[in-house]
Amino acid sequence: MDLLINHITNLVTVRALGSRFKRGKEMTDIGLIRDGAVGIDNERIVFVGTSSDVDESRAKYVINGKGKTVTPGFVDSHTHLVFAGTREHEFSLRNAGASYAEIHRSGGGINNTVRATRSASKEELLRLSLHRLDTCLSFGTTTVEIKSGYGLTFEHEVKMLEVIQELRERHVLDVVSTCLGAHTIPFDYKDRRQDYIAMLLDQLIPYVAEHRLAEFVDVFCEEGAFSIDEGRSILQRAVDKGLGVKVHADQLTSLGGSRLAAEFGAVSADHLDHLSDEDIVAMKRSGTVAVVLPGVSLFLGLPMADARRLIEQGLPVAVATDANPGSCMSENIQLMMTVAGTMMHLTVEEIFTAVTLNAAAALRRSEILGSIEVGKQADLLIFDVPSYEMIPYHMGVNHLSCVIKRGRKVLDTMQEKFND
């Protein structure tokens, strides 16, 4: 084998045992192995077990994992990382008492980001986004979903999606692309709502499908954005064109976005701050992953989604950053893990499941990512702490010392001999 990590004090495998995701009490099973070992060959995991069950002489390179914790690479299943311009002034306004809605109505909010992103060249967006992906990597994200949604014309949405495609080619992270042309009705279509929706249905979604610019289509169903009926027509067009679907659902009001997601068998419904019991039942039946975004509530000072209730009622729950310039300016998945514990009341074990296997399921990747099991892609994190509980507990401190992506070192601060 190419590489063996041996004598790992805490090996967190999050073993799936063939399941697409974990739900309910299953989320507490992280497959912990003490004095564990992981063998890697040709980008894949070929051995998982205890150190006593593996022969070190079989490995070309060996890392001593004593005193360390090894986990699957983190999967951030909901981000808006491609954008130009920042909105720190709005942060100051909110702290002074202005609401997010008031800022938006005054012409700020997403409108500022749309203007800046439209004005930016593809080269500038690529430069900014590559830097943000480096930041994601530094906190242990090895797979990331990125949405469009700050162009909001055919031309500029395509520009954003082409940047995301180039990020896939240029960066070591696995990047999953989502078309979010249905983010909001842009200011220049304020009095032409139906024209904008027609553009999405007749031009953008067919073009995205034909040119394979995205794997998913997302729609923001909310008052002030898209109605349930509008969302249904957008998702139907996406499905007709062979694309997967996601929904920004029930963030500010209980509008029914989560049930719309369930109706289409969406891979995920995200936000979920205002859910009824009927919404939860529908999502459970459809196998839709519930993606909660604790950083948004933290950043905006809003109540958290009731993730504890979602888990106890049997939904597979994932945690993501929602990294974006307006409501969560952070690529730090480890921070979201801490907030998911302190404010959403997830156990530490549930947190690890939520940022690995279940997050991979929210991107249709859990067959190859999200757990440390034989045959899966070798995306591993090595933390310089002996206990996995230390990672979300030691808030604001990054103990990550090595990232292995597809079996190769892509970030390393350890004083270990390692193949380049």
The mean pLDDT is 96
- Structural category is alpha/beta
Helix % is 25-40%
Instruction: Report the CATH architecture of the largest domain.
Output: Alpha-Beta Barrel
Q: Approximately how much beta-strand content do the residues carry?
A: 15-25%
Biggest β-sheet, characterized?
8 strands, mixed
CATH topology term of the largest domain = TIM Barrel
Provide the number of structural domains. Answer: 2
Task: Output the radius of gyration.
Answer: 21 Å
Quickly count the helices: 15
* Measured distance between first and last alpha carbons: 15 Å
Write a structural description.
It contains 15 helices and 16 strands. It has 420 residues and is α/β, with parallel strands linked by helices. It has 2 domains: 3-72 and 370-412, Urease, subunit C, domain 1; 75-361, Alpha-Beta Barrel (TIM Barrel), CATH 3.20.20.140. The strands form 2 sheets. Strands 1, 2, 3, 4, 5, 14, 15 and 16 form an 8-stranded mixed sheet that branches. The protein has an 8-stranded parallel sheet with strand order 6-7-8-9-10-11-12-13. A hairpin with a 2-residue loop joins strand 15 (400-405) and strand 16. The model has no long low-confidence stretch (mean pLDDT 96).
